[in-house]
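Check this:
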Amino acid sequence: MIRRNRQTKIVATLGPASESPDVLETLFLKGVDVFRLNYSHGSHEAHQKRYDAIRALEEKYKRPIAILADMQGPKLRIGTFREDRIALSPGMVLRMDLDEEEGDEKRVSLPHPEVIDALNAGDDILLDDGNVRMRVKKKGRTWLDCEVVFGNKLSNNKGFNIPGVILPITALTEKDRKDLTHALDMGCDWIAQSFVQRPDDVAEARRLIAGRAGLMIKIEKPSALEYLEQMVDLADGVMLARGDLGVEIPAEDVPSVQKRVVRLVRHAGKPIVVATQMLESMVENARPTRAEASDVATAVYDGTDAVMLSAETAVGRYPEEAVSIMDRICRRTESDETYRRIIEADQLEYDSNASDAITTAANQVAQQIQAACITNFTSSGSTTIRTARQRPSMPILCLTEYLSVARRLAILYGVHAVHVGSAGSFAEAVGKATQQAKIHGLASKGQRLVITAGVPFGTPGSTNILRVAWVE
């Protein structure tokens, strides 16, 4: 059986460098808990092959694996140039218009009329991940004259960001809707929604998903920070995508924003994933920089549920090494006594209901008696989510009769999810708990478990029993 010796989970993006069954299996064995299918690239047929390979791996190792389908969203891009690229210099003026003809040093296509409508003189546009900054000088009905503030080149189809401007566009494009249907029909466990700007964006996605998967919103726009609490309430999880967000807010603000978002989402009882450029240098190099190792560790110290690899495993030269080093960084950070002090110092607020009281008590009892693990019986996953938000020092053994629930919970901090048959009585449940803890290497003979369950069994939200049991 596969057992991770860490609580923080690892998400890895699949792509040309990692889609073969052999590499995919190696990544799983080295530590990947969640595989990400990036719908910004690849065909539906390619994603289906990756999905099938993951499910075959899941069947082989009898361990639920979460699959995250990441929607592209309304990525804004300029058109193309006659010579593929142009040189820029500060003070140079470039017209952006709706004409689809290839551009030159004087103009380029901007095929987004809603952007032209939303911008005004004085507004800034960031292109090529922030490497080029332009400022709108004049505006017409179908064009913008933009002065180069900095940047020395611009090439075909570069993306652009507009800091501080909420665009009147939906976060789900026509492409996203088709991709969403495909991902849900395949059976993906999580849907990541890109470029959300306001609560209405989240509500629309939630309506379309209709409970068939968890909804994870990606925080990439400053406006998302403005409406963060409302959107977290509507979502099932959050991904802090620091790449695009870091383009639109000052670089010096990113660390404090990360801490605020991780804390807020954790306190809300939702999984939080810290993503983008974590081990970026490993796209080309076999070892990360010291700063990148520190970045991963910082996310773990902040209390994130998961850290994510993007290009490192999708197109990088060293996908297996990237997973291995991320696993080692997470394990080393969690073993630091400072880590546990930081986690325990962050006091949670609790709801005044029986389920919260039971899971809070379970964590306290488990700490006091040095239990091997906390075991939850859950049908909806809510009990395990409540347990994970407390960030216990021991693993959480989640036992559920629903495979879809076990898969979805695989992204949560410390959770070892197991798909088992239902228990007819609490005595039978205790037997299943001790048996599964032994099978999965979470406890050995003579160790104790703290078990929570709800009676009657199979009733969501009915957690009302706490029991300490010995492993025989």
